[in-house]
Design a protein that fits this description.
The structure holds two protein chains of two kinds. By secondary structure, chain A is mostly beta strands. In chain A, about 0% of the residues lie in helices and about 55% in strands. In chain A, the strands form three sheets. In chain A, strands 2, 5, 6, 10, 11 and 12 form a six-stranded mixed beta sheet that branches. By secondary structure, chain B is mostly beta strands. Chain B contains no helices and eleven strands. In chain B, β5 and β6 form a beta hairpin. The radius of gyration of chain B is 13 Å and the shape is globular. In chain B, about 35% of the residues are buried. The chains are: A mainly beta, B mainly beta. At the A-B interface, β5 and β6 of A face β5, β9 and β10 of B.
């Protein structure tokens, strides 16, 4: 089975400041990793993903995340945030091997990012 | 591409009634769909995996007779909350597994807010 821990439940920052949302996972098999964003009363939107290849992945709106296998982490970063980035962010993993967990997303608890003017 | 819709977006019902929520993949065929529920300020919890043409697989602790899932076609899965009670009030989100290169991704619907009075 997999588990995901998002170390910060809430992160307040000022506009144009850098931000890091932390995510650690545990799994007995290799995994794919995802970050999703959820705006109030909406579903989840994929922000970025790591499946293979370069461990640094980027989104179109300036977020990036780096897969660190030795530290089992997939922290999300943005060098300069905007008011519109205010949302809840979920880190998630899928086991990429067989077994009962195959194909099932396991989510972290979520981190509420609030960007203040 | 990979758009998933849900209907209704919100529903209010009386205790004891049944409510059906539809999840549709609009521009792709989804052999597998997933149903999640999300309580306020909490993460998404997988309820069941819905496979086209076969019975759904429920997660531990989810009552299969209360949450009826039907995946009758490659683009539609339904979740029926039978004899709903106030404790069933929640945000229900479905997702559909992608195809081809997106097989390891899930595409999420916008969610359905259920309030049971």
């Amino acid at each position: 089975a997999q588990s995901v821990t998002q170390l910060d439940s809430q992160v307040p920052v000022f506009e144009e400041a850098p931000v890091e949302l932390r995510c650690n996972y545990s799994s007995s098999v290799s995994v794919y990793l995802f970050w999703y964003v959820q705006y109030p009363n909406q579903g989840l939107q994929l922000l970025l993903k790591y499946l293979s290849g370069s461990t640094l992945v980027e989104s179109i709106n300036g977020f990036e995340a780096e897969f660190n296998k030795s530290q089992t982490s997939f922290h999300l970063r943005k060098p300069s945030v905007h008011i519109s980035d205010t949302a809840e962010y979920f880190c998630a993993v899928i086991a990429n091997a067989g077994g009962t967990s195959y194909g099932k997303l396991t989510f972290g608890q979520g981190t509420i990012l609030t960007v203040h003017p | 591409g990979a758009v998933v819709s849900q209907h209704p977006s919100w529903v209010i019902c009386k205790s004891g009634t049944s409510v059906k929520i539809e999840c549709r993949s609009l521009d792709f065929q989804a052999t597998t769909m997933f149903w999640y529920r999300q309580f306020p300020k909490q993460s998404l919890m997988l309820m069941a995996t819905s496979n086209e043409g076969s019975k759904a697989t429920y997660e531990q602790g989810v009552e299969k007779d209360k949450f009826l899932i039907n995946h009758a076609s490659l683009t539609l899965s339904t979740l029926t909350v039978t004899s709903a009670h106030p404790e069933d009030s929640s945000f229900y989100i479905c997702s559909a597994r992608g195809q081809g290169p997106s097989y390891n991704e899930q595409f999420f619907g916008p969610g359905t807010r259920l309030t049971v009075l």
